[in-house]
Design goal:
Number of strands: 10
Oligomer: single chain
Distance between the termini: 17 Å
Length: 227
């Protein structure tokens, strides 16, 4: 982190494996955009921290460099159990609770991208369009609000998953993957056997430009900001 120009904090192996491909896709989509600096040409340090990027709070403030935190909204119900976002009353995500602690769950779901760009003032993180930290988590996309990375990736790329489900080694209960009656939350929960293998399946059955699938909106938004 000391020698990086910029930082991306991610949760786990799935994001770590797929992030370079997602960066390439965002670079390709924006190659003709004025003042866009390709992400893959920059010295960006990608660090896997789970949902605990907040432990770097003081260090990030000290470094003073652009940092993107990609995390999950991690909805829970009134019994503090994992649930669909639509049934959620709070988030269990420690980083979201730390950086956006003044927001209730309904506000978190609707928070704009600019409101998730933060700077530290008087020991508190506050919204600042010129801030150096951006926290990105799932937002509603195509009428559906996902809970996790796998959930949202399936929701925006179900045709790709269904077309390749017989080849994907990472999947189980493959008969439940049906684009005519999709339940993205259940597919993510019941059909992914190994998350790391799921990520490598996605890459293996993609072309070199990864045109077969889309980058989830919240990640694309964060990467464009980071660029």
């Amino acid at each position: 982190l000391f020698f990086a120009e910029k930082i991306v904090f991610i949760e786990g192996d799935t994001e770590r494996i797929l992030l370079p491909a997602m960066m390439k896709k965002v670079d390709d989509e924006n190659k003709d955009t004025e003042n866009y600096t390709p992400l893959l040409s920059q010295n960006i340090s990608i660090v896997e921290v789970g949902a605990y990027s907040h432990i770097f709070d003081y260090f990030l403030n000290f470094l003073g460099i652009k940092t993107l935190i990609i995390t999950d909204i991690d909805s829970i119900n009134s019994e503090n159990k994992k649930c669909r976002v639509a049934d959620g009353t709070a988030t269990s995500n420690a980083s979201i609770k730390h950086f956006l602690k003044d927001k209730n769950f309904n506000a978190l779901k609707k928070l704009s991208h600019n409101s998730k760009i933060l700077s530290k003032k008087d020991s508190a993180w506050v919204s600042d369009e010129n801030g150096l930290i951006c926290i990105a988590y799932q937002t509603e996309q195509n009428g559906y609000h996902a809970r996790s990375f796998e959930d949202v990736f399936i929701s925006v790329n179900l045709d790709f998953i269904e077309n390749n489900k017989d080849n994907f080694k990472s999947l189980k209960n493959k008969d439940q993957i049906d684009s005519t009656k999709p339940d993205y939350f259940d597919i993510a929960e019941k059909c992914i056997d190994k998350k790391t293998l799921f990520a490598t399946d996605i890459l293996y059955y993609s072309g070199e430009d990864y045109t077969e699938w889309q980058v989830p909106g919240y990640i694309r938004e964060g990467l464009v900001w980071l660029s």
